[in-house]
């Protein structure tokens, strides 16, 4: 695998950190190197947050993603999308929550913008909005093919309480399903 650099953005309290933590931990379990670096704005709850994830077979020497080298971004909040989108390389993929993120026509020309209602899926189909980080995890892995699915799912299950395992497995399956459908339409 070559190096994969991802960025998840949202607002404080949306759980984008968990997805980054799961990706990094899974890559390390695989024997590679995974780093998750989170940045918060001054307003912790409700302020823009960004989590950069670097997965590589070789050691990663700088913890922050370099703007212009990010392959994939997922955003569930417009404030963070607007603030951090320019880090994505031209032609890169950005998955957005269409009910909350509003890309411009110029953005759509510069990047491959995919609309998947992440929060709606978590809230209405899974039945728990907190599972949006696992929906996002599945979407990101389906697009990037960064890690073996079973390794990622097993790592995810090790990071969440046992009582919500079934809910999170459902969230992963739905995220994967919607990402696969979006890829087929593209």
Protein architecture, described:
- With 186 residues, this protein is α/β, with parallel strands linked by helices.
- Helices cover 44% and strands 24% of the residues.
- It has helices at residues 16-30, 78-84, 105-110, 118-126, 132-144, 149-159, 165-185, and strands at residues 4-11, 33-40, 48-56, 70-75, 88-96, 112-115.
- Helix 1 (16-30) crosses helix 6 (149-159) and helix 4 (118-126) packs across helix 7.
Give the gist of this structure:
The chain has 186 residues and is an alpha/beta fold. The protein has helices spanning 16-30, 78-84, 105-110, 118-126, 132-144, 149-159, 165-185, and strands spanning 4-11, 33-40, 48-56, 70-75, 88-96, 112-115.
List the helices and strands and how they pair.
Blueprint: E1 4-11, H1 16-30, E2 33-40, E3 48-56, E4 70-75, H2 78-84, E5 88-96, H3 105-110, E6 112-115, H4 118-126, H5 132-144, H6 149-159, H7 165-185
Helix pairs in contact: 1-5, 1-6, 4-7, 5-7
Radius of gyration: 15 Å
Specify the oligomeric state: single chain
Major sheet characteristics? 6 strands, mixed
- Order of neighbouring strands in the sheet with most strands: 2-3-1-4-5-6
Assign a percent range to the helix content.
40-55%
Calculate the mean pLDDT score and round it. Answer: 93
Output the helix-strand order: EHEEEHEHEHHHH
* End-to-end separation: 24 Å
Number of H- or I-type helical stretches: 7
Total count of strands: 6
Outline the low-pLDDT stretches: none
Shape: globular
Decide which structural class fits the backbone.
alpha/beta
Classify the beta-strand content into a percent band.
Answer: 15-25%
